Amino acid sequence: MTSNQQTGNRKKPGPLTRASLWFQRRTNVKTNEKIRRKGGKIMGMDLLILHTVGRRSGQRRESPVTWFDGGDGTRLIVASGGGSRHPDWYFNLVAHPDKTAIEIPGESAVPATPQALEGAEREQAWQRITEAQPRYAKYQKKSDRRYPVIRLTPR
Q1: Entry pTM
Q2: Which of 15, 63, 73, 150 gives 20 to 30 Å between its CA and that of 91?
Q3: Contact between residue 63 and residue 52 where contact means Cβ atoms under 8 Å apart
Q4: What GO MF annotations does this protein's record show (predicted)?
Q5: CA-CA distance, 93 to 98, in Å (whole number)?
């Protein structure tokens, strides 16, 4: 998997501080606990827990991520990151694609192969995603950064 350039028209993000990283990680922990306890549907969207390894730290990371059915047992995820930048988990996937796993509520984490979709494949996946959740089309319109769409294939 390779990283594409990230630019965006939305408000420029400030530097990540220790406090903001701590807050994000704590929020992820709480959301992951909720997913494991109550299932993966939050605010009308299906969530999974994406297991990655930090690109710089080498530490295991778990991120709650909205997913969409990609067909053939695959799942599609969008690296929207709030519109302003790619989320950290995306860069972790790029750096360590072989250390990726997905956890669906009620199941153990399984290794997965991430693939950034391009061209017609991406367009078909994007159509599927925006039909299921039109809010993603609204988010994309607010940013000139094209959101990466990732297919996760269980290994």
Answers
A1: 0.84
A2: 73
A3: yes
A4: coenzyme F420 binding; oxidoreductase activity
A5: 8
CB 28 within 8 A of CB 63: yes
What the chain holds in terms of domains, given with CATH numbers, is 38-154 (2.30.110.10)
H or E element, residue 138: helix 135-141
Spatial CA neighbour of 150 closest among 9, 13, 48: 48
Using a 10 angstrom Cβ sphere, with 0-12 exposed, 13-18 middle and 19 or more buried, the burial of residue 41 is exposed
Residue whose pair of structure tokens reads 């988010």 in the numeric block: 139
> Mean pLDDT throughout 94-104?
97
Question: For the segment 40-87, what is each residue's pLDDT rounded down to a tens digit?
Answer: 888 788 999 999 999 999 999 999 999 999 999 999 999 998 767 889
From the list 153, 136, 41, 21, the residue with the least C-alpha distance to 93 is 153
E strand spans, the chain: 41-42, 45-53, 60-66, 68-71, 74-78, 101-103, 110-116, 149-154
Token look-up 């290794």 returns: 111
Q: If pLDDT is split at 50, 70 and 90, which confidence band does 96 have?
A: very high
Task: Judge residue 53's burial from the number of C-beta atoms within 10 Å of its C-beta, 0-12 exposed, 13-18 middle, 19 or more buried.
Answer: middle
Q: Supply 18's token pair.
A: 């220790």
